Every structure is written in structure tokens, then in C-alpha cells.
Amino acid sequence: MRTPIIAGNWKLHKTVDEACDLVTALSAQIAEVSDVEVIVAPVFTSLAGVAAALKGSKITLAAQNCFPEPQGAYTGEVSPALLKDVGCSAVIVGHSERRQLFGETDTFINRKVKALLEAGLQPIFCIGETLDEREGGEMYDVLQRQVHKGLEGLSSEQMQKIVIAYEPVWAIGTGKTASTEQAAEAHAFIRGLVSGLFDNVTAEAVRILYGGSVKPDNVDALMAEADVDGALVGGASLKADDFARIVRFKPTKG
Ligand code: 13P
After folding, report:
1. Are 209 and 230 in contact (CB under 8 A)?
2. For the chain, domain boundaries
3. pLDDT tens digits for 59-111?
4. Ligand 1: distance of its center to the CA of 235 in Å?
5. Is 148 one of the catalytic residues?
6. CATH fold of 5-247, please?
7. What burial class does residue 166 get, using C-beta atoms within 10 Å of its C-beta: 0-12 exposed, 13-18 middle, 19+ buried?
């Protein structure tokens, strides 16, 4: 019922030319895929070029960040409206790298979620616990706080437009992916949080992606879990072959 999403977060990688080459190769490799939504999130400077390279393709464009004001004296920032103008339909918010390296708080992320919805863009809202938090038994509290504060003040209708990405921080860029059991448990917990905050219909409609060292050789098992509705892929989204294989996942119980 929930259409899967495979999204590539390119982080701080690739020049404009490299970015355009990558999406051109990727579009050709996944031309026959019709039952998966495919999203790429290049660096800001590549968005216009990639948007042009994607004309006629089913792949859609996302940005990796935004500032929650439409315009003004905010040197160095980019608004949701400008991201829409350049061809984005979604924006990643709340990524753990922004939380950890740039001090972004749940409250600030909530402002971004609201600003994106107001501009007609889809937030890809990231949450996830650190290793210390998991080992200290705080995982559920952390996820609950991130969901409650990050999604505060939204209607059920708005919530259904949001995609959640569960990215355990200890699995990002480490090659240590969560086990299928760990992913299944966290995703079910998160869906329960959405149900509690909104309602069951909304919770069943929301797509929850897994992120953290997703590769061609582990995506099939992850996608076999009922509450895993897709993947947010970092490193493996930088190579057309690997990302195309992830897009063509075949759910397989381990
Ligand atoms: P990796 O796939 O490189 O672990 O990165 C995951 C991620 O942070 C996607 O947003």
C-alpha cells in the first residue's frame, strides 16, 4: 500500500558535472522501474544542473537542508521557496550530521518542517539515536523526543505528506548497518509514536525509511521488514551501479 522510496543523500560530494553524469547514468539504469519513488539530494550548487539533467526522468530532486524563512537578511541560507523554484520537491531535515555538527535543535527542525509544508515541499524528516544513547537504554526516549518535538503542531493531513527517515547515528558511514530486527523494532516504535500523536490512518500512510550503511547486499533483507518503506542512502548513492541495484531491491527475509 505504501509506495517505497529510495533516496540518495549525496552529502558534500560531486561537482556539477559529476552530479549530472551520475543522474544521467542512473536514469538509464532504472528506466524500467515503476513501483518505487526515487529521489536524489545533491549539493545546493548542483541542484539546477541536476534538475535540467532529470527533465523527462521519473527521478525527483531533493535538497539536503533549508532555512525556515521565505526571505530576508539571512546570509548564506536558502529558503524552501527557492528550492522549489530550482526544481526540488523534497528536502531532508533533521539529519544527524546537522544536529551534531551544526547544533540544530528539535525546535529549529520543527520550524523547517513547517516552512517546507507551507511552501508545498515534502520534508524527509530524519531521526535516530547515537550509540551511547542506545547502549544507555535511552533509544526510545530519544526517538520519542525527536518525533514529538520535530512534528509538533502539525495536522494529520500535513503529517501524511512527511517522510520519516530512521537513521541510527552509529550506522551512518560506518559500514555497520542495523540488523533487520533492530530496524524493524525501531520502525514499529516510530509508527506507534505517529499513531499516538495523530491517528492510526495517518501512521499507516506515513513512509518510514531506514538509513545507515544501506548497500546492495543488505537492502533486500531490510526491505522485507513490514515497517521499512524504503531507504535513505549515503555512500552507496554516489555510484550509479550500486544505487540502481538498491532501487531494484528484492525483499528477502533473512
Ligand atoms: P551512509 O549510507 O553512508 O551510511 O549514510 C547514511 C545517511 O546518512 C543518509 O542520510
Report:
1. yes
2. 5-247
3. 999 999 999 999 999 999 999 999 999 999 999 999 999 999 999 999 999 99
4. 6
5. no
6. TIM Barrel (3.20.20)
7. buried
The beta strands (E) that lie in the chain are given as 5-9, 37-41, 60-63, 90-93, 122-127, 163-166, 207-211, 230-233
Measured in whole angstroms, how far is the alpha carbon of residue 91 from the centre of its chain? 8
- Dist CA 157 CA 65 (whole Å): 23
Distance between alpha carbon 235 and the CA centroid of its chain, in Å?
14
Cell of 47: 541542484
Q: Whole-model pTM?
A: 0.98
- Report the run of H or E that residue 142 belongs to, with start and end: helix 139-150
AA letter at 238: L
Catalytic-labelled residue, pool 97, 133, 167, 225? 167
The one-letter code for the residue type at 16 is: V
The residue behind cell 531532508 is: 92
